[in-house]
Amino acid sequence: MGRCPTEPHNRSKMNIPFHIGNTKGDDALEKRFLNKALELNMISLKGHRSVGGIQVSLYNAVTVEDVQKLAAFMKNFLELHQL
């Protein structure tokens, strides 16, 4: 299961940090996620320096297709690891 470590009133619409595995994040599982994402040419997903985990940035250069690809990868990763 994933969890966003940022309080709702402080959340950005452009940068989405989250942990996977548990509320504090599972380092081994997050590393596996990041390595697999890199194999799929999804770069710069390592988490923010203050909250760690994983962070997705949705700035202008990110296309709808990129987001759909990421969402499909995340769903598949969730299913494979039964989170």
Automatic annotation (TrEMBL):
Gene3D superfamilies: Aspartate Aminotransferase, domain 1 (3.90.1150.10). GO terms for cellular component: cytoplasm. Pathway: Amino-acid biosynthesis. Its cofactor is pyridoxal 5'-phosphate. Keywords: Amino-acid biosynthesis, Aminotransferase, Pyridoxal phosphate, Transferase. One of its GO terms (molecular function) is pyridoxal phosphate binding. This is Phosphoserine aminotransferase. It comes from Eschrichtius robustus (California gray whale).
